[in-house]
Amino acid sequence: VELIIPPSLLNPPAHNDPAQQAAVVGGNVEVSQRVVDVLLGALGVTAASQGSMNNFVFGNDTLGYYETICGGAGATASADGASAVHTHMTNTRMTDVEILEQRYPVRVERFAVRRGSGGGAWHGGRRGGDGVIRAIRFLEPMDVSLLTQRRGVAPFGLNGGAPGLRGMNVLRKADGDEAQTLDALAQVRVEPDDVIEIHTPGGGAFGGETERS
Fold first, then answer.
1. Per-residue b/e over 10-32, b at no fewer than 16 CB within 10 Å?
2. What pLDDT shows up at residue 209?
3. Is 206 helix (H, G, I), strand (E, B) or coil?
4. 79-97 confidence digits (pLDDT tens)
């Protein structure tokens, strides 16, 4: 296997002055996810998984909290993708709802499998795993940051299998205004009773023999 990488993409040149050295943003949480997807996809082994750790950060002058959110895994030729899991390079677990609500001024309004978000496969194919929907209601003013991917391009399927659904980030204001779709990279100020709702991507499907032919 020969990897041909454009200069400065994943291998920035070294510099004696640290201030001139290229910065890495989300390398261990976002870049790593996509690199694994690319390698497994190029070898025809596994369809794309959610491709993001869905980094979710909130806080104010007195507290701060950070979590990554699970999603769908890509299918293989012999198995469906797993649903509602952290994939590839992730090595973290999510905080239990009871602990989160006890220690922080938030309420978990919803934490559920995002049914149907994994790519579909027929005729002996394997379907992608489903993502999740996680909705957090804030009880105090907070600053919220989101570092997410797969909001524009869907996780790919292999061998004719369908892609998984793209992720989506939504802000629901307490005043009842129409829900606002947030960018993949977003920073917003929330007020009491505002809700952030995160729909994580599903995994791609792996097509069967009929689909491939």
1. eeeeeeeeeeeeeeeebeebbbe
2. 66
3. strand
4. 999 999 999 877 778 899 9
